[in-house]
Design goal:
With 71 residues, the protein is α+β, with helices and mostly antiparallel strands. Helices cover 51% and strands 14% of the residues. It is built from four helices and two strands, in the order βααβαα. It has a two-stranded parallel sheet. The radius of gyration is 13 Å and the shape is flat. The mean pLDDT is 84.
């Protein structure tokens, strides 16, 4: 399994997925668990980090459901 959570300022998921597709042996790539998060919500020490953490939690919950590990 695994997950890749990549900070992206442009929000272009396809560009990030294309980049990581170069490593098809990684579990996160194999299982389509490559996600982008807004860099501004994760890299700045401000209240926006709460939004970023919330988004990361949603992604992790989605991956757990998909992998059946949330039980």
């Amino acid at each position: 399994g695994g997950i890749i959570a990549h900070g992206e300022s442009s929000g272009d998921d396809n560009e990030v997925r294309d980049f990581w597709a170069s490593w098809p042996s990684l579990g996160a790539v194999k299982h389509d668990n490559v996600h982008t998060l807004p860099s501004s919500a994760m890299a700045r020490s401000s209240l926006r980090i709460i939004d970023g953490v919330e988004e990361l939690c949603k992604i992790l919950a989605e991956v757990r459901r998909k992998d059946g590990a949330g039980q």
